[in-house]
């Protein structure tokens, strides 16, 4: 009996997989995109209510300008390759949170993105804004939040469906959802994605910013600048990425590919 249960469970996990665009990586997907977007939208609004939103119109317009340009390019690309369903139901939104001490940005399922004023001070050009914006858009497009939620449903709740988990253990499940988004139970506590997710977002981010006409070389320049901050204690935004040199080596390898495949 146990053997049959294990085999059945493995079969479910094998079937419940999707493929990340461009990279082709297979990922566990036990949660529907609509379910994740509904939870994310609720949590995003809660986060915004509990945060101080910046009124810096120049920086807000800058984020909107860069974000719109990348999103339009990525959505057109997904349409061209027959995968427009990946952003179906997305309601893209970018907000700037006032906190000069936080050098970070994050994204939730459904295209909910936030930057902190602390990271905005590091951007010298729109190309550098595009590095981080494209990285966060990549998290949303690749479904990293849904994948992590699926992994936690298996590990902590036995792989039950999300609607069942919400009914039987609503508080525990909503806490798992916050972790899946990269948010802790307290607003401002940012939890890292896995190194696999971060590396994949770096790769897709280089491709996405290149599609939008930004210079992919800015990715190396920006990450070098970030890695140099604080000596041996890099900003939280880098805490789960591969080592600085590994990341930079990867980006240098990917830039020619990005230019060849997605440049003008």
Radius of gyration, taken over Cα atoms and rounded to an integer in Å: 18 Å
β-sheet strand percentage: 5-15%
Number of strands: 5
Q: Whole-number average pLDDT? A: 81
- The SSE string, one letter per element, is HEEHHEEEHHHHHHHH
Percent helix: 55-70%
Q: Which term fits the overall shape?
A: globular
Identify low-pLDDT runs.
1-15, 185-191
Structural class: mainly alpha
How many distinct folded domains? 1
Q: What is the number of helices?
A: 11
Strand order of the largest sheet: 3-5-4
Distance between the termini: 58 Å
**Major beta sheet, specifics?**
3 strands, mixed
Short recap of the structure:
The chain has 264 residues and is mainly alpha-helical. It has helices spanning 2-15, 33-49, 57-80, 117-120, 126-141, 144-157, 162-168, 170-181, 195-211, 217-228, 244-262; strands at residues 17-19, 26-28, 93-97, 105-108, 112-116.
């Amino acid at each position: 009996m146990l053997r049959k249960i294990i085999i059945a469970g493995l079969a479910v996990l094998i079937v419940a997989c999707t493929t990340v665009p461009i990279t082709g990586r297979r990922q566990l997907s036990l949660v529907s995109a609509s379910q994740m977007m509904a939870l994310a939208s609720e949590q995003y609004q809660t986060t915004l209510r509990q945060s101080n939103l910046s009124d810096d119109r120049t920086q807000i317009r800058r984020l909107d300008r860069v974000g719109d340009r990348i999103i339009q390019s990525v959505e057109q690309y997904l349409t061209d390759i027959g995968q427009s369903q990946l952003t179906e139901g997305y309601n893209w939104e970018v907000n700037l949170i006032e906190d000069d001490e936080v050098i970070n940005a994050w994204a939730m399922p459904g295209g909910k993105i936030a930057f902190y004023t602390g990271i905005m001070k590091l951007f010298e050009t729109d190309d550098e804004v595009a590095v981080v914006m494209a990285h966060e858009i990549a998290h949303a497009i690749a479904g990293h939040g849904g994948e992590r939620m699926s992994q936690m449903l298996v590990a902590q709740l036995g792989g039950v469906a999300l609607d069942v988990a919400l009914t039987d253990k609503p508080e525990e499940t909503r806490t798992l959802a916050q972790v899946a988004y990269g948010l802790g139970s307290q607003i401002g506590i940012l939890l890292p994605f896995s190194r696999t997710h971060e590396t994949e977002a770096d790769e897709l981010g280089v491709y996405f910013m290149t599609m939008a006409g930004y210079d992919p070389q800015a990715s190396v320049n920006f990450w070098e600048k970030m890695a140099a901050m604080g000596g041996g204690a890099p900003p939280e935004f880098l805490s789960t990425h591969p080592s600085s040199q590994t990341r930079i080596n990867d980006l240098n390898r990917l830039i020619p590919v990005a230019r060849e495949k997605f440049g003008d």
